[in-house]
Specification:
Elements lengths: L9 H12 L9 E6 L8 H10 L10 E8 L2 E8 L9 H5 L5 E3 L5 E3 L9 H5 L6 E2 L19 H9 L22 E2 L5 H4 L6 H5 L5 E5 L6 H6 L4 E2 L11 E4 L1
Parallel strand pairs: 1-10
Antiparallel strand pairs: 1-8, 2-3, 4-5, 6-7, 9-10
Amino acid sequence: MNTALPSEDLLIRMQRDLKRAQTKNPADIKWTMVIDVAKCIGCHACTIGCVAENKLPPGVVYRPVIEEEVGTYPNVRRRFLPRPCMHCMNPPCVKVCPVTATYKNQQGVTVIDYNRCIGCRYCLVACPYAARTFDFGEFYTAETPDLPGKLVGQKTTEEGYEAHPAAEYGKKWAKRDDESPVGNARKCHFCLHRLAVSMLPNCVTTCVGRATFFGDRNDPDALVSELLGSPRVYRLKQELGTKPSVYYLR
């Protein structure tokens, strides 16, 4: 049995692919994610990493991991399916937005302009993947007492983390009060603020089983391009014609 370790971590290769892509004309880049379901162990590290990266409040989750039981008793097993935004090439959410707050950027990423979004939530209904959530301005620490002499209370926790401005889309959003992104639709954005500084999306780097891959599918030498040639590749709800930019490996 061959027990030799791989020559390098796949994160190193993807980091190299990322830096190579950023030397190109932005319009020539098409960011793509590939998720190997066979490698996902259901640890939810990607979900927690995403929440921490984007300072997400209660009810807002960009990358849930869906669990299901497959097989017939007694031959059954658990299967885990990470489900970020699909960043469809033909996105239904873009078509229904009455104020064009949702649109696709040059690299094929579906983004939301928080300053334009009016919170109508049409896009939440239109998304066939349930990949969008709404920010009602809630806090995890809402019921936490702020007692004298305590090191951790509601005020301390909010100021230290929950109310800290997030860096989504490369901007420093206001602290959580009545301003954006509170009152807006929110979703995965492939960590565009990290890509801008040559860092892979948080869910990719936190994946314990190395089940998530990211790169430019227009680069024939990129790892994602190699994986897209696999006979194991499929996309969710392909029959809808949405053409997701997130692919899965069976």
